[in-house]
Amino acid sequence: MTGMTTAEKLPVSLTTFAADGVTPEPINGPMVWLSSDEAIMTAAPSADGLSGFAVSVGPGIAHFTWSADADMAGGGVHTITLVSEDVTVTAVVVEAAVIKGAFGAPVAK
After folding, report:
1. Residue 50 CA to its chain's centroid (Å)
2. pTM reported for the whole predicted model
């Protein structure tokens, strides 16, 4: 299981392969990203969807499902899918740590 806090985001990179799991192969169009719970984690993919960030929103456990059309022959749609491991997002409580102040311009009493 992977984890992050509500103050962080996780980089993601995806590569598509032939059935041998070794030979890289292209996809037909962009990769589609789907979060299991957008109240916990959302997607910020690049234009082609092969990289981007999992962005924390709130505490909890969520995962991504990625899918793409692998049909490069143009004969239809052949969807390939990957479901990520669970990502645990923990809350970060931000509290005041510094006081700053400034004097204004003088005024008559």
Report:
1. 11
2. 0.79
- Asked if residue 30 lies in contact with residue 39, where contact means CB atoms within 8 angstroms, the answer is no
CB atoms inside a 10 Å sphere around CB 45: 19
Please state whether beta strands 2-5 and 87-90 pair in parallel, antiparallel, or not at all (unpaired).
parallel
- Give the strands of the sheet with 87-90, arranged side by side: 2-5, 87-90, 60-62
Of 84, 33, 32, 94, give the one whose Cα is nearest residue 61: 84
pLDDT in tens, 53-85: 999 999 999 999 999 998 877 777 889 999 999
pLDDT tens string 30-41: 899 999 999 999
E strand residue ranges, the chain: 2-5, 9-13, 32-35, 41-45, 51-56, 60-62, 64-69, 79-83, 87-90
Three-state secondary-structure class, residue 24? strand
Class of domain 2-90: mainly beta
Question: Where in the chain are the domains?
Answer: 2-90
